[in-house]
Amino acid sequence: MNNTPKIAMGAWAWGNDGTFGDHYTSDSLKAVYETAMKKGLNLWDTAVVYGMGTSEKILGELSKETARDNLIFSTKFTPQIEDKTPDAMQNMLNGSKERLHTDTIDIYWIHNPMDVEKYTPMIIPLAQSGQIRQIGVSNHNLAEILRVNEILGKSGLKISAVQNHYSLLNRSSEESGILDYCKKNNIVFYSYMVLEQGALSGHYNTETPFPENSDRGKVYNPMMSDIEKLTQVMEAIGKNHNINTAQVAISWAIAKGTVPIVGVTKVHHVEEASQASEIVLTAEEIHELEITADSLKLSTIRYWEKKM
User: Fold this and answer.
1) What pLDDT score does 15 carry?
2) Which CATH number characterizes residue 96's domain?
3) Does residue 145 surpass a pLDDT of 60?
4) What is residue 22's DSSP assignment?
5) How many domains does the chain have?
6) CB 110 within 8 Å of CB 137
7) How many angstroms separate the CA atoms of 251 and 146, rounded?
């Protein structure tokens, strides 16, 4: 799979599960999809578990008139919702293919490392039969990544992609050596939650926090006074390049050799992400961002995650 865009379009919020406060439909997202495709941002990241098929359905509806060669579909097998049959992964993949109106998934992920020994072998026949083009693992630590590659290697296969939570406030995939391992082994590292679900977007601060009872509010509001110290630095660096705070976070993730997955629910999200992908931060700016973030000593590792 050549010509991977510098950024991936994230459809997590399309799942209508309420995490992001809004409910989305194919009509409300049509302009978002069309803008992204016009800008060559054709890698779409989704999962069955995002609204239990809702995100995939919307993406499938919007993309069904697009030539398949112009699309890169990334979706996931989530162990927690498997059907407890020997064909669990094949069955989940079948549902994804149906909702996305395709015979082939470009990147198919094992969403988390619930049981590496059980689930890794299940993905092998999917790859061998050509139903999936690349194998990815998400939320796996380095030891788990190495074990997956060991199991796959016996069948002549390997991991092509790793997707973990990676941001200025959570660099554990870097500190643990995962980023280096990926670079050395020609594995694309996809960073999700680069904006910490909006906490690093510059839209929220101590005066305008997340809604109190929201999932994001419970996590990020108590640390907002510290986060503000980082977003102020991000804003200042953004002014050097005529970009906003959120765009600085995206540019930083690209500078680190990763492909950020940027959640898009409005046209301006796509436009800003595209612009951010063209900006090159200086080594000094990257250092300042990281020193500031590290000094805060915050943990934004969420309930479904672990330190890498």
Assistant:
1) 85
2) 3.20.20.100
3) yes
4) -
5) 1
6) yes
7) 29
In a domain, 175, yes or no: yes
Domain assignment of residue 248, yes or no? no
Residue 226, in any domain of the structure: no
Q: What percent of the chain has pLDDT over 70?
A: 97
Pairing state between β 259-263 and 43-45: unpaired
Note whether residue 210 is domain-resident.
no
Q: Which of 174, 175, 235, 154 is nearest to 200 (CA)?
A: 235
CA dist., res. 214 & res. 234, Å (int): 25
- What's the pTM? 0.95
CA distance 76 to 279: 30
Q: Which two tokens stand for residue 27?
A: 């009509």
Task: Identify the domain containing residue 183 by its residue range.
Answer: 8-198+257-279
Q: DSSP alpha helices (H): ranges in the chain?
A: 26-38, 54-63, 88-100, 116-128, 142-153, 172-175, 178-184, 215-220, 224-241, 245-255, 267-276, 283-296
Please give the structure tokens belonging to residue 89: 């992964």
Average pLDDT, the chain: 95
What gap in Å lies between CA 183 and CA 185, rounded to an integer?
Answer: 6
